Amino acid sequence: MAQADTLSGNAPQPAAGAAAAPPAHIEHPPLTGGQLVLGTIALSLATFMNVLDTSIANVSIPAISGDLGVSPSQGTWVITSFAVANAISVPLTGWLTQRFGQVRLFTASVLLFVIASILCGLAPSIEMLIFFRVVQGAVAGPMIPLSQTLLLASYPKAKAGTALALWGMTTLVAPVMGPLLGGWITDQFSWPWIFYINIPFGLAAAFFTWSIYRSRESAIRLLPIDKIGLALLVLWVGALQVMLDKGKELDWFASGQIVLLGATALIGFTFFVVWELTEKHPVVDLRLFARRNFWTGALATSLGYGVFFGNVVLLPLWLQQYMGYTATQAGMIMAPVGLLAIVLSPLVGKKVGTTDPRWLATIAFLVFALVLFMRSHFNTQADFTTILIPTIVQGAAMAFFFIPLVSLTLSGLTPDRIPAASGLSNFVRITAGGFGTSIATTLWDDRAAMHHAQLAENISTANGNASQAVAGLQSQGFSAEQAYAMINRLIDQQAFMLSANDIFYASAFIFLLLVGVVWLARPVKAAGAGGAEAMGAH
Fold this sequence. Notes:
The protein is an all-alpha fold and 538 residues long. The protein has 3 domains: 1-225, Growth Hormone, Chain: A (Up-down Bundle), CATH 1.20.1250.20; 226-280; 287-446 and 503-538, Up-down Bundle (Growth Hormone, Chain: A), CATH 1.20.1250.20. The chain starts with 32 loop residues before the first helix and ends with a helix. It contains 22 helices and no strands. The model is unreliable at 1-24 and 526-538 (pLDDT under 50). Helix 4 (77-89) runs antiparallel to helix 12 (227-246) and helix 6 packs antiparallel against helix 11.
């Protein structure tokens, strides 16, 4: 995840001059022996817990929705609310780190995450669950970037690559485990336990981190924060996300509420851009978009991730609602997505320093397009193996996706600008993932309604096959109403399958278009920032 590259306490901060002269950087010696092992495990546990929560709920959405009495599309707010709150909080990591210290902030973030997880599990309604997921996403913001910062400070500089490789493996294992673990917990226990599982991980991570790192606290200083910029950021991102989530339910722009949300998002975004471009110490450095490699890399990453994440949410919904899969079975379909990623990521990490990252990203987009093209040919007779194969192949695309694109996005930047660039590109990516979920589920319902209407046109007494099917069901003891209800269910199954195929096909086409976007970037002569930062891009 690109969250790893967000502002760290060790990086120079442009806003420092507004307060006081920055204190001397505190250089701590590397850890050794048992402390190094325990420190690595503790930081990895926190990373695992955080990343796990971005995917563990995906296969549990139908169970959550059914238990709380809402539609599955409303249930996806459980995913998007976390993603958007997390995206908003990430740009604040640098300021919070210097205000409170790396170790204090990280430990507090982990403990608050545990408390928010408990409240999520206890939530009595979808509204309360979404609220607590917002809190959970907000307090999670500093966890991943600071886990990487503390881990790097634990190892000698010569072994920084080893540290980042260990960190990167953790962030790849969590998405693999998330769907499988979420499905198994939902089937064997109940959905609140997908949140309660964070309690032992979080308490262990906080205890060992504080025990080992409290004597290695970073320098602390007061820094100004762009309060107006932050308020505008929350306003337009929040309004846009709610508009996307509520759009279908309220019939989009036929609703005054949606019109108001859309206007709020547009006006808030406009003022945000103007303010950030003129503010001396902006919370988000939008001037980075003036660099060609930054905007092309960030655009390709965010669009690719948004399409990818939308499809990751859509597939288990389709399997559980219309293919008869349990949450565990849907999780088993999704889980192998990380297997090839784990195998190939170290190879890609080595190649990114010697190979043009545009070629590596092109491989990712072509494989993603192939995977989605394969899925666009699914039908209601597709067996477990047929559905599983594209998921396994998709792991290769993931390995070639994150590392080269982060390398490309950060190429040519001076070290002092890399933390801000990482934070901004990460914010755009996470936000795009939340939007991708909303758009995919909305389009799925809309296209299904269209296909249902087209298929239902053929069901009438004038249609011999339809009449014969109804008569056959009646001969088995069903009433005419029951027979038509059963046929309607079959039409629903076909309609949602065809709708999913439409989205898979369109997504494949978007990935092909992204090949052109990535080649708008300038060639990268040397990996520059890419090596270390790219390894943490997962």
